[in-house]
Structures are given as structure tokens and as C-alpha cells.
Amino acid sequence: MIVWLNGTHGAGKTTTSALVQQLLPDSRVFDAEKVGETLMDITPGLPETDNFQHWPPWRPLVVETARRVLEYAGGTLVVPMTVLVEPYWREISAGLAQYAIPVRHFVLHADQETLRARIQNDTVLGPSPFRFRYVEPYAEAARTWLHAEAEVIDTTHLTPAQAALRIAEAVKG
């Protein structure tokens, strides 16, 4: 099974995913961003883009990596990864379905004011123009398709531990 934690930067995906992993027996965190980082390391570089998700190889490589890890190790993969482009989500979810891999898709949501404050006050990464750029696209995706495709966990007033517990309880069902 895959537990996909979606939502924009500042919603708490990375922190929450580590806590979810501790609550779900036989689970591992798979950071699909590492697949993008591998593509960014190709030299000479791939065509210029502002987001590695736009490179066509990224999406099937995420599917294939997840499939291979599950085939090898079994259990559950917790995937903290923002996907705000609906066709990209459809491609990934269809690819996983092709291998009969069940996906529990959660969106960690927070209102824009909270997201901006979290990004601004991040003591690890600091304020990030890259992260700020995704606040409005997230809001648009949430309005148009994303919230309809996932189980929404509003993290505005939750700690990451509280959000993780809700997700783990939902998965264990």
C-alpha cells in the first residue's frame, strides 16, 4: 500500500510522514523528490524547467521505484510529495493502479495565512521564494480537483503528531 501525503510546501508533509511511518507497522518513507533530484543531476542537463515534475520521465520513474520497493520489501510506503497538476496525479495513480498497488491519498491542508507564516518562519529552510510560489497553485488545485481526490486533513490547528495519528488511524481503519 502507498500512503501519499499531498499538499503544498509548509503543510507539514515531511515532518508528518516520518511520524506516520512510526505509527504504521512495516512502513517506510519514500521521498519521490529524490527521483527528481536524480534527474536534475543528469549532465548535460535535461531541458530547462522550473519544476522537475514537468519532465515526462519523473512520473513513471516514481511509479516504478515505488513498485520495485514494495515488491522487494513489502509493507507500506509513505510518500510525502506535492502533486498539484491533475494530469500528473492521474498518471501516477493510474500507473500504481496498473500494478494493483492500493493508494490512500491524503492532503495536508492549511489556510493560506498559516501556510505563508510557516514558510516565512521555517527555522530549517528559512523563507523560500520557491515554496511561496506554490501557495496559490495549491489553493487553485484544492478548489478545482485535489480535495475531491483525497482525504483532507486540515493541519491549520494540528501538530504534525496529531495529523500523523489521524492518518494512521484512518489507514488502520
Radius of gyration: 16 Å
Please state the average pLDDT score.
Answer: 96
Order of helices and strands: EHEHHEHEHHHEH
Assign a percent range to the helix content. 40-55%
What is the count of DSSP helices, taking H or I runs of 4+ residues? 8
Strand content: 5-15%
Q: How far do the termini sit from each other?
A: 14 Å
Give the uncertain stretches in residue-range form.
none
Give the strand line-up of the largest sheet: 2-3-1-4-5
Based on secondary structure, the structural category is: alpha/beta
Secondary structure blueprint with pairings:
Elements (H helix, E strand, L loop, with lengths): L1 E5 L6 H11 L3 E3 L3 H8 L17 H16 L2 E5 L5 H13 L4 E7 L2 H9 L8 H4 L2 H10 L6 E4 L5 H13 L1
Parallel strand pairs: 1-3, 1-4, 2-3, 4-5
Helix pairs in contact: 1-8, 3-4
Q: Can you walk me through this structure?
A:
This protein is of the alpha/beta class and about 170 residues long. It is about 50% helix and about 15% strand. It has helices at about 15-25, 35-40, 60-75, 85-100, 110-120, 130, 135-145, 160-170, and strands at about 1-5, 25-30, 75-80, 105-110, 150-155. The chain has a 5-stranded parallel β-sheet, with helices on both faces. α1 packs across α8 and α3 packs parallel to α4 (about 85-100). The two termini are about 15 Å apart. The model has no long low-confidence stretch (mean pLDDT about 95).
